[in-house]
């Protein structure tokens, strides 16, 4: 058996002035998720398919100029409103990564901790991925206000 390198682990935290239930549900409701999850300011959302059960899959596709940016995965754990774990890939037929979202209630709402585990071969995408998740969580916060 060959020795594997340790995965790259990104951790992003964000506090929300909303209940854990509201923040959790925003990940699994296609209407809400389509407004923030993998959405960009200049893109046009084309597909939001979410099957929110363990073993269910999601596909979120946004037209970004000439490119159709697809994001897909499978739900591994769903424990409303505290934990969501899913595989994630942005390229078809490529080994997926693992994303864990933990949500803890606080006196002011909740705190979300997102952990993205990636194969070391994606090291060149570490900063871009971290920045992307931070932007998406900011979009989530903005979506919940609106």
From TrEMBL:
It holds the Pfam family AHSA1. It comes from the Bacteria. InterPro entries: ASHA1/2-like_C (IPR013538), START-like_dom_sf (IPR023393). Residues 18-144 form the Activator of Hsp90 ATPase homologue 1/2-like C-terminal domain. Belongs to the AHA1 family. This is Activator of Hsp90 ATPase homologue 1/2-like C-terminal domain-containing protein.
């Amino acid at each position: 058996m060959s020795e594997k390198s340790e995965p790259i682990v990104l951790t992003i935290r964000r506090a929300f002035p909303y209940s854990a239930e509201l923040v959790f549900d925003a990940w699994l409701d296609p209407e809400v998720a389509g407004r923030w999850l993998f959405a960009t300011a200049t893109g046009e959302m084309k597909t939001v398919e979410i099957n929110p059960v363990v073993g269910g899959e999601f596909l979120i596709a946004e037209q970004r100029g000439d490119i159709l940016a697809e994001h897909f995965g499978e739900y591994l754990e769903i424990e409303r409103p505290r934990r969501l774990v899913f595989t994630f890939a942005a390229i078809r037929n490529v080994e997926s990564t693992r994303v864990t979202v933990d949500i803890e209630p606080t006196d002011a709402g909740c705190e979300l901790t997102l952990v993205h585990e990636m194969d070391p071969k994606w090291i060149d995408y570490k900063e871009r991925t971290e920045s992307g998740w931070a932007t998406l969580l900011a979009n989530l916060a903005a979506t919940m206000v609106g």
